[in-house]
# Entry
Amino acid sequence: MKVFSSRQVKEIDAYTIRHEPVSSIDLMERAALACSRWISGYAARSGRILVFAGPGNNGGDGMAIARQLMAEGFDNLFTFQLRTGSPFSADLETNRLRLLNSGHSIAELAEGEELPSIQPNDLVIDALFGTGLARALSGWPARVVRHINAAGCRVISIDMPSGLTGEDNRGADPQTIIRATHTLSFQFPKRSFFYAENAAYTGDWHILDIGLHPAVIQELPSDLNYVTGKEIAGMIRKRQRFSHKGTYGHALLIAGSYGMAGAAILAARSCLRSGTGLLTTHVPRSVYPVIQGAVPESVFSLDPSEHCFTSMNIPDSCTALGMGPGTGTDPVTLKAFEKLLLQYRGNLVLDADALNMIAMKKELLDRLPENTVITPHPKEFDRVFGGCASGYERNMLQMEMAVKHRLVVILKGAFSSVALPDGSCHFNSTGNPGMATAGSGDVLTGMVLSFIAQGYGPSEAALLGTYIHGLAGDLAAGSEGQHALIASDIIEYIGKAFIKLENHDQESDC
# Structure
């Protein structure tokens, strides 16, 4: 699913109006109906609902939603019209008159007047300002936002929490942004939804299909994408009857050090579970007695050192190499890593301590083979590429570095993003907070390594690995709960994630 800028969404709206064709007021009615249906399934009819409408088309959505909810039997509903001194949009004025003609009164909120009382058990519908804002709210509108936030009640924002913009919010005033419980977004997620600093404002967000014209959605270019199950299901290759283990590649994993056998075990097990034909795991001698019994399906290569990675001969049959989980950053390991980068120019996946070593010696970044996949979490990313003050800034730098260094950069977190050398960025739609647990990243490394070893391109493998990793985590959380989830659970549900994707046509969603 493409992710468009606020400017592009306006273009899509305008194209839909011209080419469906549909009038702007009827398109607004359609959008409002999608919202009111969602709200009808969420809100109790006996509860009090307060609709706050702004002066523009977002306010028009709010007026239409109020009218539709009244028709659905929500009688305990109150509508407030914010006056800012700016003229009302034409569609707002139309929906305002429709609401008044239905017999519903509208209270005016003009500067200096007393604001309505909001109780903690009320439900507020925020239709003050949509995606059109270009600067932080101030003055009277900011006061209204602060008043709503201070109530501590549930808030449903229409299309966008008022005060939040669709992209860069580094200049925003946190005190003048609505803190929504739910955000109902039209047709597409907004880019700002994917950044941790905005989660307090968006709450849980939901995408409502309002029937925007498919032709313009397909034709309008975007470097941003929200990865769905349908896309991933279409990427998975069917296994052939007469294939054998050699058909599915030979992965080489360099992992573990004294006291860090677990990272090697998790990465190795997830690599095998994801379908590689053969795995060789290179470990220090002290790790071998632990990992041999834990991963009997792997072949093992033993380092000369008891404690850490110091050297190895890479077999010619290796189709992808992964390094980093639990290796440590001992000086001899750093030296061996430098030598490895001089010798090996094949498919490479780097995580954890491999990235920490690059952070220690930044010139190693320029020695990475083209299309190397790196999988940093935000702190590892900042150590390698420089500190970032916000998720938006980090995402922009991620995309820049992927192009500059010809890398595939998986930035881990909620909505993990995959930046590709072609300049595109893909936000993942699977995963849950239960996956914020030790070893989860090692599992992802093993999965991406496995897909590359099997012959998937690095970009494709990164998208597959990230999505299936999150889906396995979601399935595990459904069984074990988020609080109890551990990294081994993710591995155990990789197979079920594949089955779910294989049955995607019969599933409503992945």
Remarks:
- The longest strand covers residues 77-82.
- The mean pLDDT is 96.
